[in-house]
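Proteins fold reproducibly. Next comes an illustrative record:
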Amino acid sequence: MPADGYGSIRSIYQLRFFSARNYFYKLFGHIEESNLACKKH
């Protein structure tokens, strides 16, 4: 398998991993904010 082909596959997986991680960070950040709002009430 050529080096640049491997690199493109690796970059695609990195993009998917980073987008998924950002999604979960936003999701859990939203949950933490709602939990803090509940504690304030």
